[in-house]
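Exercise: predict the fold of this chain.
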Amino acid sequence: MSFRAATGREPAWQNTGIERGFSNFLFIDRNYDSSPVMRRIFSLARKLKYQSLLVEKISETDCPLLAEENAALRLRRPDFQRSEVDRISFFRTPADHQPADFCGYVVFKRDFFAGPPQRRSHVYESVLDPPRQSDQNNFIHCHRSYNIKTSAGDFSVRGVLYAQQNDLTFVCAHVALRSALASVLPDADISYARINALVGVNHTTKTVGDSVGLGPPDFETVFNNLGIHYQKLVHEPKQQLLLPTEFQRDLYGFIESGCPALVGFELDQPNPGPKGQSRHVIPVFGHTFNEDTWLPNAQHTYFGDTLSYYPSENWLSSFVVHDDNFGPYFCMPRHFLKKENFRLMYGLKPEPTPLSAVEAEAVGFAVIQAITNQFPPRGEDWYDRFVVYTRCGWLVLRSALVCKGKYLKHLESVRTWNGTGLEPELIERLRNRLPESFWMIEASAPELFATSRRKFGEVLLVANTPLPKPLDASMLIAARLPGLTLTQNNLQLDVKPTALQSHTPLLGS
């Protein structure tokens, strides 16, 4: 998009090394209207160990997107006069910047008007490296690379796009949509003008802002026009969820499949404004993981959980979200958003699937039970443990909708502790039988899953057909377990042995 590609004018470097006494707070107070969102972004950049920043001016003549945004503002507020835009780039070294030194950028926009309020400012967009990675038990599944052209050279950053509303031509629903769609669209972004055109906002007869937002029909219009598949979950007076945390398990399923979700909720106190806006929506794109959590065992043993396995979601600690009011990469505790406040969720998907991740997980467990009944212990340590864990209700199951290419790459890389991999002929066999996408249900043990991020193996299920009644082998595509692989062919299982007889890494670990 244009702000990333536009020529930066009047470049100014700032060495932010601590030894020089540089203060993020003072810099933002003096230059960026004491913006709390900018303080958040600079604090994250500090966590990423930035040592210098480059400030460049962006003008309409160099940036068609800026001209488009300002034209929309002139329609919405005829007293609009001009805008000022800074693009700030963060680097981990004070000089001689290499591509690896770049850790993100932020675009800050001020809009000036003749009437009150005479100035509004907001973060138009920002992408930073996630401040925590998987080695710190943070898992961001929806990030992607963004290329930025600066006066110091061309750089790239891998993260999740953040944006803040201006409450005139785009609101919280726009920026949440933009963050989620940027994760899945080929262009890695979408303009607010494009969103508004899809939903009929023209800034004259149909407007947004001043507590007027977008509704569910607008979201669905955008998804349908862009060819985005989604699953919708609603909790309203006439359409109630049954379980207190029902939406959280579905939300986790989208994220584990590498897809973002939009979560809408009711506020306890309406926002000020003519309409008293009482709802908000945020994008969710990752989660944190607590390997030492007490919950899975306690829930399984002490508090009457009737499931015959441990859902991997039990180890989830927080969801990772953006909030345009506060900034990027916040952690929302797993059980903080109660059913009473939850109203709506859109989970994006690469293709339509009749089953949710939670339902696919339950089918996967039924398939695993059938396999262990047909193939009892074989005198091989890890397969026999797998059977015992299945029969005792000790398995950990993790479901995800995966594509063929990603799974085959995973198979080619998996190794046991002694370096044994899956035989090439078995990988090729699967390559010839797998559809383009399918459900993968990974089976692990609590001790393997939580501490080592490893598993016994996985079963692969059909994703695009309804569940047969009664359940039969038609849902199974294949299974890979310690010492053997199974593929389904006309409801018959074709079994092949493998030298890969131990546990292997989880997908994406």
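Check your answer against the key: Residues 272-276 have pLDDT under 50 and may be disordered.
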